[in-house]
Amino acid sequence: TKSVFCLPPQTFDKILIANRGEIACRVIKTCQKMGIKSVAVHSDVDASAVHVKMADEAVCVGPAPTSKSYLNMDAIMDAIRSTGAQAVHPGYGFLSENKEFAKRLAAEGVTFIGPDTHAIMAMGDKIESKLIAKAAKVNTIPGFDGVVETADDAVKIAQQIGYPVMIKASAGGGGKGMRIAWNDEETREGFRFSSQEAASSFGDDRLLIEKYIDNPRHIEIQVLADKHGNALWLNERECSIQRRNQKVVEEAPSTFLDSVTRRAMGEQAVQLAKAVQYSSAGTVEFLVDSKKNFYFLEMNTRLQVEHPITECITGLDLVEQMIRVAKGYKLLHKQEDIPINGWAIESRVYAEDPYKSFGLPSIGRLSQYQEPLNLSNVRVDSGIQEGSDISIYYDPMISKLVTYGATRAEALSKMEDALDNYVIRGVTHNIPLLREIITHPRFISGDISTNFLPEVYPDGFKGHQLEVGNRRELLASAAALYITAQLRSQKVLGNLRVSSTPVECTHWELCAELGEGLYSMEVTKSGNVYIVEVDGGKVEVSGQWNLASTLLPLTINGTDRMLQCLSRDASGQIVLQYLGTSFKVRVLSKLAAELNSYMPEKVAEDTSSILRSPMPGSVVAVSVKPGDTVKKVHCKPGETVGEGDLLVELE
Fold first, then answer.
1. Residue 198 pLDDT greater than 80, yes or no
2. 252 and 157 share a domain?
3. Are strands 217-225 and 207-211 parallel, antiparallel or unpaired?
4. Whose CB among 169, 171, 257, 563 lies 3.0–4.6 Å from 552's, allowing a Cys bridge?
């Protein structure tokens, strides 16, 4: 008998990835697996980016601004010609849903790894897509099926539909050009703002109005279709945890859907895909109310950011399926072959300050970066590494952190560990918020909606709120770390300072400042174990106490905890990341604490007459000038500003 060796079906020799960051890296990984050569494109500031290093070839397509590089169709077409790429994978964002780009590729005989142009056009227009969905017997939200011309029209239509209404850009996406209005005045204002935002973001100011479903869930169905009329639904993704209409935490499957609702949503998603002769991977987004009524929201004709969680529970590689379909192969699977195996959760890790509007962008260089890949069932899709810059030019995403388990509880527990073991230094990041979400009782019980964040944190996110037990753990850990550092600094390399071995001190009296509180502590040491009496309780802390390590694994009162020491200084200031949030603790000897009361306090800046930038970015417009009850304007349109930069002084 002869042994038969089956090669994977031949698809393309070379694929160009018209994207950057984590999604470009993700596509390249599948290309490598399939034996396909990859071409990266990059802006000049991305010349040493991870996706550029991973690819077999790389071409610079312009300067940093996206309009001159990653959206520069002429330069990308030149890159395709010069490298001889036979196909293009657009990733998500940028040119992924641009019908003009897909047409230009088709004209040159280059395969677009995505749906045909007519499907992109039909689903890219929110007005047309809603009409097609209605015709395909897909549930749609009550609303006005047409373009709203003026603010007066908007008010009339809103009154007919009944408040609240959602005003949104027809060509929109990513939460841009969307406003909720609860009355006539808000409708007029929303019409004006949405049309301005739509024009600047999409070059298309057309708006539509529909009924706003209050407190809904955002649940989407992944579809996969080929060019032979076959289409599958690959289960759902629960994407209700959002801020500013952008997803923060996603999971698959959803705790909310039963098998009947899941099948109904899946079948409607497939009906819509077939109605537009869809081929490739795509996503049909639905709003689901508390009674499990679901309504079509939009179809994304591309690979979604959150596709990894679907891959985890189905075992399919969606990028591989997209490449096979683009080459013309039939789907390998039938609907009954698609499983739900286990549970997967994705946290979007951003270089953002979660204490400002649940996340305003932060920039900087990753001085230390370590992904928690030492843990099992953890997947990290990233496009950066230690030393990478997070700049103002692109989305501030650091990575997509995905954990997988046989059950939801297992996946959540793994996510907690992964967030605690994730080392990110040099930029502000949103791990404090992510960890609070996944450990919140409402999230654990599955009681979520798109209003979760504003409902749970009505006054904004404030980090982990310490209860007495947690506060004792934190103070005891800081005290033990302080003493470890003190003992180490008393030793001199090679020999001790005196010939006779001194008896090492084993008992200390310390004080700690945490927030507004001052706490007395008594510390006893035995080997690697510290017993700390603080705040009316006793805490036992043990560990290896490696002061050079980024991670600080401790056992506190019998519970294993992973802390991170973010900084220590000579004045006793220790910044610890504990339960996801970073806390400043100042540990002092009793004498130093007494003397500290004589130190002058720094007076806070009077901000009543000045305006500072809340985040880094470009100034779009300055609508005031000196004399308009402003004393001085410190910026001009087009200028780049950093977080905290002075913008305007008031009189």
1. no
2. no
3. unpaired
4. 563
